[in-house]
Amino acid sequence: MTQISSLRGLGVSFALAAFAAASPASATNFKIAVGDGAGGTQEALGVAFIKALEEKSGGEHTATLFLNGQLGSEQDTVNDAAMGMLDMSILAINNVTPFSPTVGTLTLPYVIQSVEDAETLTQGEIGQELIANTINDAGVRIIGWAYSGFRVLTNSKHPVTTVEDLQDLVVRVPKNEIMIESYRSWGVNPTPMAWSETFAGLQQGVVDGQDNPYMTINAMRFYEVQKYVTDWRYIFSIEPLIISESVFEGLSEEDQKILLDAGAAATEFSARFLREKEGEIKERLVAAGMEISTPADNEQEFITLATTKVWPEFYDQIGGVEELNKVLVSLGRDPVSE
Ligand code: MLT
Fold this sequence. Notes:
Elements: H1 3-10, H2 12-20, E1 29-34, H3 41-56, E2 62-66, H4 74-82, E3 88-90, H5 115-123, H6 125-138, E4 140-155, H7 163-166, E5 171-173, H8 177-185, E6 191-192, H9 198-203, E7 209-213, H10 214-219, E8 228-230, E9 236-244, H11 245-249, H12 253-287, E10 291-293, H13 300-313, H14 315-318, H15 321-330
Parallel strand pairs: 1-2, 1-3, 5-6, 5-7, 8-10
Antiparallel strand pairs: 3-9, 4-7, 4-8, 4-9
Helix pairs in contact: 3-12, 5-6, 8-13
Residues 35-36, 74, 91-92, 94-95, 174, 195, 212, 216, 239 line the site of D-malate (MLT).
């Protein structure tokens, strides 16, 4: 059974109704699961959110971050929040997609090409549509966005600059169909693995590589077990702050507004944090021994394969080619035909 059908099987609306009564309407200390370790964009978003929450509620509400996947794998936290067993989670959008397929538009390879694109999509009309879909499909509401930068490829074996170089590598990917198919379009079969197991998988040589933003590689200390970085741009990592819809619905209108405003303030902080810190973090990784290469041919080989093979496979899941075209046009790019 897929995760989506298992969630639907549970009947998200039933679960919402059942847990609404138990939701912490008077909660003043929300629990926030965080997939990554300290020092990354997830923690930065969380800290900014808590600060804004405390300010805007006059100290009545606060929240506590549980870093490093202490409250479960990122995908498990979506289930737990949907069931009202967890208040909030900060996680990569690719780990929300299995529960709400239309957010896959934000993970399609080579769609988002800059932090400005990420801001345009998440903070505009498209972002509002995706938030509504996520409430309906997954029982969680996105109230803030962290911007983490492009997911670069790391591995322990050799530099990768061409599709050919990838062929002998075992690469870990999240349990996300779009990302799995992206690697397949380049001729390799990646290994889906939960985020919480990835460091150990790299350390023990179960997998040779993975992809994540510089900020995340640093926060997770991957430089201790990975040497080669390929500075490609196939996915820009967006990491939402989600709240259990049943917990949100159990709050007063005034408190709901406080949470939404705190989320907006944290989102704004996150974009600034990335712009200010990413260069410095990249230098730190090089100083720690990582070697960065850029793909040959301006990445064209990767781009052509991924966009021609992967995009059409996911039109249905994201709501049709029209949905992708809405995104492309809003970013000033040409629409594609089916
Ligand atoms: C993943 O690779 O599963 C996620 O991007 C990890 C993260 O949230 O940083």
